[in-house]
Specification:
Blueprint lengths: L10 H31 L5 H28 L2 H24 L5 H29 L5 H29 L2 H21 L17 H10 L2 H16 L3 H12 L4 H24 L5 H19 L4 H27 L7 H13 L2 H15 L1 H26 L2 E6 L5 E6 L13
Length: 430
Amino acid sequence: MAATFTSLRQPNYRLWFGAALVANIGTWMQRVGQDWVVLTQLTHNSGTAVGVTTALQFLPFLLLSPYAGLLADRLPRRKLLVGTQAAMGVLAFVLGALTMTGVVQLWHVFVLAFLLGVASAIDAPVRQTFVAELVPAENLPNAIGLNSASFNAARLIGPGAAGLLVAAVGAGWVFMINGISFAATIAALLVMNTSQLRVLPSAPRGKGQILEAARYVRGRSDIVVIMAVMAVVSMFGLNFQLTSAMMARVEFGKGAGEYGVLGSVLAIGSLAGALLAARREHPRLRLVLGAAFAFSVATAVYAVMPTYVSYMIMCMPVGLASLTMMTTANATLQTSVAPAMRGRVMALYMMVFQGATPIGAPIVGWIGSEFGPRWSILVGSISTFVVVVVAVAWAVRNWHLTLKPHLHPRPHLEVVYQTPAAPVAVATAA
């Protein structure tokens, strides 16, 4: 158990972890409140409108991530985070004020979602790389896992609390609380002991630095495989706020409280996955593909659950598989990339991972509106299964791998290298 929480021995990381937990609770509350307002107050159960809102929130990742990564590699990361966190807090207050005064309209939500996406797109690569300044290099996989644990522990609390608050006092208070929560992160950043930070080397100013990162990624086939798989999964499979809202409201006829509970139960599995990831010293590509395969199976079962309770129970394995996949992909990239290049590479990853959502969310929302909420989940399950099969087949062919199934002592798939230059092992455990 001590190995799971190794990074918390670092004072600066403890500050970051606690503040991030508070801010993440607020973020999850806003996500639930925003989708519910769009679905039930500003439209008549329009999955397409919720999908457009999600798309606008993630579109800036597609447009701005390379430049955000360059900022993360050039500028002081702690100061940059103070600015992005403050901007996101202000946007939450604006949405809260519009909602509480009763003047909020759909276009208001669209504009604020896009602006929040701009701030988040700049924040993401800085946040991803800043953790490397808080802990020794050997603790980085652990710190990344604990960051995910914080995010998903917040998901246990945030959606359920948001559902109850929306039902009791309205969504406006949810947005106001989220605005206040960013003060915790800003305070933690300001009081950190800067002498204990392990400041990463900054990239010097120069031409072609974004293209330099793109060439670096293109030369790493293992990174390309991770990005391709995660882009497809993000595009069609990770739209939980959208699909759960439609399932709760349309398929099962439930209210805001029950919708919020689904997010909290999903977080139980996600938190378990994050804590397991925190114990893992050597994240590998094979686990990314194995978790993606498990995600495709779990979401297929999840989509056909006949009752609200059975659907809620299936949220746990879906959360476990999705979090294992995402955390392992993140840690594999961060621990295998040169420090001066890390911000740009992580920004390119966020561009394909988060930037795929604006493409997929409206499609998934339209499928849910036209063919029913269950198909909005199944499209993600099918697409994830296909991309994993293609990725494994490509790796076997191009990395000259041989796959050997075993039944004892437990069912698993062994990878045998034909050439010593093959990248990280690719395998899926049965």
